[in-house]
Design a protein that fits this description.
Elements (H helix, E strand, L loop, with lengths): L16 H10 L13 E7 L1 E3 L5 E3 L121 H11 L4 E6 H4 L1 E6 L4 H6 L4 E6 L2 E3 L4 H7 L3 E2 L22 H5 L2 H4 L10 E6 L10 E2 L2 E2 L7 E2 L19 H10 L15 E6 L6 E3 H14 L3 E4 L15 E2 L3 H19 L3 E5 L16 E2 L8 E7 L18 E4 L12 E5 L3 E5 L2 H19 L1 E2 L5 E2 L2 H10 L20 H6 L18
Parallel strand pairs: 9-13, 9-15, 12-13, 15-17, 17-19, 19-20
Antiparallel strand pairs: 1-5, 1-6, 2-3, 4-5, 7-14, 8-22, 10-11, 16-18, 21-22, 23-24
Helix pairs in contact: 8-11, 9-10, 11-12
């Protein structure tokens, strides 16, 4: 998050330049098609939890549909909490005395036969074998749940009711309690013309859907399997490049002072302006560890200028454009479909702080040899849409990236009373929180260390406006390292959010006079330029860079051949090697303290307290 007033936000995916262009053609916004009504984008969040194999179990805990007494087979026998089936008909119920037990399992000897409930004497004959995909065998066509819904191979609907069909392909399978296809079918029932723009059911139990039907959300919310439906809005996180220049928030350094190489072995030309790197002992850490190319850091932002010379060393760039992804297919500020074209500036600036090379040009990043993966979720206007953020985070999990930096927060539409805090009392905000939280948990399960900016409103996150049930996401999601910003004197930046339990660490973000490069963060800009700006957006990438150094130093090869380290282990090293500042111990403004790259790569967890930084004066 950059330090200035913000307003709206959006994203899509591309594995390469060719893939990006192809995807753009497929996902061209409906508004661009002449004469078509405007579609609304929705996040559809299904009930469930993760399966053992890491996939999302849609409808976990539900035998067929929600186990309530209102979902009946024939109006008499409800699906109760204790029994999968209470009855076959009014006479022969599967009640307590006739329930499935280890002695009377559905095997060759003890199964359903004729008009009888399970009992030791009534085995199923060879003509009535239980089918692999059916509650009752495909051969038992005459034994219906009721007259309308016979469980046979050819029956059009295996249903308990019109809203809860279990069609032929919707049987329970090994990955989902209710198959993914059933979720897709529900969407088509709500709106046959709906367009599913992203299927994240495996990763997070989420579908992202475009619909022109005004009743779409209301209809979907009536289904037992659906937990939340939220309209997708964006919020302007960052100004456009020109807006930032015009306001003075961004200062671009004169080209004649930077476009020259240092002498061999000398520091990069602008390192003398990088007070931030000195504050976290990065130059000393580089004598031990520069980061390893196998360690991949996802920059979830506005893209990265992949042609920037400060990301190149010996003719090779450390920006991975092949694995880069662009999710910005909708909204007012769509630009290039290529992740390695930054339509704005924010992503390139963040990337430089993490991984600008030691190559005699410009600046040096915290981890100059790691690989940077651009995941574009915010467009040229600075608009970042929650649906795109969900996709981007899930994509980072798909790739099993080592670290992701998130210098943004998801929000709703600035024209609809945009709020930084997502409250459980609001259905749309609940959908946002749940979708982002699930995507983050999925990525974390797959080994991704998650670092986020804490926000720029000087707000106590432990006592948020609206109460305890309101949170900033992604910064306040469990497992995410929330980063507060420090000014050049080492104290809390005036704008930085804070709060007991939510400020995990602190890092340089800049403060003081807007546009003053001696007090703000100098880094890369698109077009081989360099400039300075401030914000928790600038603090978070310092922490992400140190996390990448930790993995480079202490990580081990996993079964996929990747250098890896568990997010918990990275978090522990990141926080325990931090320098304690402010009030002693884990405090409300600085968390565990100021990150320290040298102590991190040395694995030095001895307590160190910097008395020069006073406790912050923020109220409790």
């Amino acid at each position: 998050m950059t330090s200035y007033t913000r307003s709206r936000a959006r994203l899509t995916v591309a594995k390469s330049a060719v893939a990006a262009i192809a995807l753009l053609a497929v996902l061209i916004p409906s508004s661009a098609l002449g004469g078509e009504a405007t579609s609304q984008r929705y996040l559809v969040v299904f009930k469930g939890d993760y399966a053992l194999d890491g996939s999302y179990a849609l409808g976990a805990g539900y035998a067929l549909v929600a186990q309530t007494k209102t979902e009946t087979m024939d109006g008499t026998y409800a699906l109760g909490n204790d029994y999968a089936l209470y009855a076959l008909n009014q006479t022969y119920a599967l009640l307590d005395q006739y329930a499935l037990t280890p002695q009377y399992a559905q095997d060759q000897s003890y199964a359903l036969f004729g008009q009888y409930a399970l009992a030791s004497g009534y085995a199923l004959g060879t003509d009535y074998a239980l089918g692999s995909g059916y509650a009752l065998a495909s051969q038992t066509g005459t034994y219906a749940l009721d007259s309308s819904y016979a469980l046979t191979n050819d029956t059009a609907a295996y249903a308990l009711g019109s809203n809860y069909a279990l069609l032929d392909a919707y049987a329970l399978d090994q990955n989902y309690a209710l198959a993914r296809d059933y979720a897709l079918w529900l969407v088509m029932q709500a709106d046959p013309s709906a367009f599913i723009t992203a299927d994240l059911t495996r990763q997070a139990g989420v579908l992202i859907v475009d619909s022109k039907d005004a009743a779409f959300a209301r209809t979907l919310e009536s289904y037992a399997l659906v937990q939340e439906v939220g309209k997708d809005f964006g919020w302007k996180q960052f100004p456009s490049y020109q807006q930032a220049l015009n306001s003075g928030q961004l200062v671009v350094l004169p080209a004649n002072t930077i476009n020259k190489h240092s002498a061999a072995g000398a520091p990069d030309p602008l390192t003398s302006m990088q007070w931030d790197m000195n504050m976290i002992s990065a130059p000393q850490a580089h004598l031990r560890q520069l980061g390893k190319p196998g360690v991949k850091v996802g920059i979830i932002d506005t893209g990265i200028d992949g042609n920037d010379l400060d990301f190149q060393l010996n003719g090779k760039s450390n920006v991975d454009c092949a694995d880069g992804a662009d999710f910005t297919t909708d909204g007012p500020g769509i630009g290039s479909p290529l992740a390695c074209v930054d339509n704005q500036f924010h992503g390139t600036h963040v990337a430089g702080t993490i991984g600008a090379r030691q190559n005699g040009i410009g600046v040096t990043g915290v981890a100059p040899n790691v690989t940077l993966v651009p995941i574009k979720v915010c467009d040229a206007n600075g608009d970042c849409y929650v649906s795109d953020a969900v996709q981007g985070i899930s994509y980072a999990g798909d790739l099993r990236l080592n670290v992701i930096n998130m210098s943004f927060y998801v929000d709703d539409n600035s024209f609809d009373e945009s709020t930084e805090f997502k409250c459980q009392s609001d259905s749309t905000q609940r959908a946002y929180r749940e979708a982002i939280t699930r995507a983050l948990h999925y990525a974390r399960q797959r080994g991704v260390t998650e670092i986020s900016a804490l926000g720029n409103e000087d707000t106590n996150l432990a006592k948020p406006p609206g109460g305890k049930k309101c949170k900033v996401v992604p910064a306040q999601v469990s497992g995410v390292a929330g980063t507060a910003a420090l000014g050049p004197t080492g104290g809390k930046a005036s704008y930085s959010n804070w709060g007991n339990g939510w400020a995990d660490i602190a890092a340089p973000g800049g403060d003081g006079v807007t546009g003053d490069c001696t007090t703000n963060i100098v880094s890369t800009l698109p077009g081989n330029l360099f400039g300075c700006i401030s914000g928790t957006s600038m603090a978070s990438p310092h922490a992400a860079g140190v996390a990448a150094l930790i993995i480079s130093q202490f990580g081990k090869r996993n079964r996929y051949g990747q250098l890896a380290m568990s997010p918990d282990a990275v978090y522990t090293k990141l926080t325990r090697t931090a320098v304690d500042i402010g009030a002693k111990g884990n405090d409300k403004c600085f968390g565990f303290g100021r990150i320290d790259a040298l102590r991190a790569v040395k694995g030095d967890t001895s307590h160190r307290f910097d008395e020069s930084v006073p406790a912050c004066a923020e109220p409790n």
